[in-house]
Design goal:
Blueprint (H helix, E strand, L loop, with lengths): L5 E4 L2 E9 L6 E8 L2 E7 L8 H14 L6 E5 L5 E7 L2 H12 L4
Parallel strand pairs: 2-4
Antiparallel strand pairs: 1-2, 2-6, 3-4, 5-6
Length: 106
């Protein structure tokens, strides 16, 4: 059973993401398991070089969640496939929105 890859910390939502760079298209594939727990699986066309994939991930998540770009910030995993994103905004509505958009088990 897949758990939720996000948690509320203070007034922000913290999201675990498994990123695949150099994919054929930008896409959010849903929630899956990793050795570190549940994560949102995301693909981007950008290469991992010079932080391009990380920037593409932030932009894709902001666009997917209809948030300003400045509201999605990578806070961990800069050189790893497993990333931590911090989302600014009301955390409880964001969590509900994430579940509706990406949790296929609903």
């Amino acid at each position: 059973m897949t758990g939720k890859p996000w948690r509320i910390v203070d007034d922000r939502l913290v999201l675990r993401v498994r990123l695949t760079p150099r994919a054929s298209r930008d896409a959010v594939d849903g929630i899956g398991e990793t050795p570190f727990g549940s994560a949102l699986h995301v693909r981007v066309r950008a290469a991992a070089a010079d932080g391009e994939a990380n920037a593409a991930l932030e932009e894709l998540m902001a666009r997917s969640l209809k948030l300003p770009k400045s509201a999605v910030v990578m806070t961990g995993g800069f050189k790893s496939r497993i990333k931590t994103l911090t989302l600014a905004g009301e955390p409880k509505p964001l969590a509900v929105h994430l579940k509706k958009l990406f949790d296929k088990s609903v």
